[in-house]
Amino acid sequence: MSTAAIEVEGLGRTFKVRGGDVVALNDVSLRVGQGEIVGLLGSNGAGKTTLTKILATLLLPTSGTARVFGHDVTSDLREVRRMTGVVLGGERGLYAKLSGRENLRFFAVLAGVGRRGLAERLAEALDHVGLAEVADRAVETYSKGMRQRLHLAIGMINRPPVLLLDEPTVGLDPVEAERLRQDVAVLRSRGTSVLLTSHLLLDIERLADRVVILADGEVAADVEVAEFAKLAGYTAVVTVRGTGSPPALDGGGAARFEVDDLSGADGLWTLRLRVRDWSVESFGDLGAALGGATILGVDVAPLRLEDVYSHVAAQLAANGRVRP
Amino acid sequence: MTGPSAPGERLRGAAWTFCTAARTEQRGMRGNPLLLVNAGFLPVVLLVIAVETQRPSPSRATEIVTSVMLTALWGSTVWTSGGVLRRERTYGTLARCVCGVESPTVVLFGKSLGATLYGVGTILAATVVTVLALRLPVALAHPLWLLVGLVVVVVSATTLGALLSCLFLLTRNGLVWSGALMYPVFVLGGLLIPQDFLPVWLRWVPQLLSLRWINEFLSAAAGRGPTATPLVVAVVLTAAYGVLARHTYRWSIDKARQRGSLDHA
Question: Any idea where the domains of chain B sit in the sequence?
Fold first, then answer.
């Protein structure tokens, strides 16, 4: 087996606060392969940022190990830092009085970029994130999105083989966010491994190969994106509107769809069904269930990852586990 | 990916980081109001007050000018290089400065040097203009030794600033401590008020301040001739500040990584 880009084993982190200890991570294990993009999901306080900070060597774990290309994040700091780019984002973390170029130049040198070719690399990075025109303006004049783009340029300036992205599209408009996703996709094609934390499930859907869900500091699920989508137990919601007598649903087709809601008023009715999987059989069962009804319209809404995550979060809140 | 760097390459990397940190800090200092007050206005005001009552002799004028410049340098050091890490924490850039490829100490000392150079340059400019305006008869008997003294001043203020910066990092009230440290050293530092005027039990205080020894050296170098002892003591104190700063910084970074407080404002 080749060396994993990121390998975390039994990782734990406890914070001491007044009145006791707070467990931020407990026995977390995960692996990110070379060129793989793993999405890290979880509600606020689940431990996502703590894990990212440990991998970025900003924070020491209290137990377990974390390695970047085999280098321990607590002892091989120089190598880990050389191989890791970090984008924590936010409006802070920049020198407001300095220009974007001056900021990028300083952080590039801190990340180990040498003198040779530095100017060209800065120009290329600024152009890549769309800041070339404003590169010599003070950062204090930048918008939130421009600052976020500068953070991205800083995180990627040393072309690290591992990239830690914490909410990278926050503050970006849809066009910029899409450009960022394309950038990350290009990085994957170059073999860069990415641990991506995002509340925007579109980022996960578009980019991630795998999803790790953290809940209360523990790994609640570690699945491929396709498997993650199946955790909701359905693949689409079909909404049928009709008139006259509503269809008589006698339980036929229950293996292929589930009635979510059936309501009606003034001779009009609306039926919402969750389809478990699309197949010839499911079309047949739907046709049979709706046979004889007068249908005014049908809407099909494909499952979104937001729906899956809501489902998963509800399961976690109820019993602390994720069940397919 | 490449393997671990060779020692020569690492040294070049550290030097490059050091210079870049100094340059970045210098640029960040542009228009800093604290720098303008302490390095720009303070020497002017002190010089005008010091020579207003009577016209000094050339040797006395040199002593006054040196003392005023070093006093202003103390004020500038407390607020500029002494505030490097406090400012990094405020800007949210401390974590990146600490987690770079090179040692965080290299970045700290580079930034401290950048701030010190800017401060020294401003003090020199303000002092020269004031001396010319007041037509003070300043003696420069041994310019080469004055140059040596100036280099020691810069190095010493850099390490002193780095040490203060680390000490201010240990507290959340660095700004308050910066203000609190200014005037006790003005009074007790042996720069403006001669050491002999202090109570006997407080005379040890100026002995710990390298700037006081540099003052003695520069005053002698400008007049009767330099003596080695104050220069050696200043260099030893400078080295001690540097070692103490390095240990304090590493210790506070380790603590911050344990507590998770590196990126706290």
Answer: 12-259
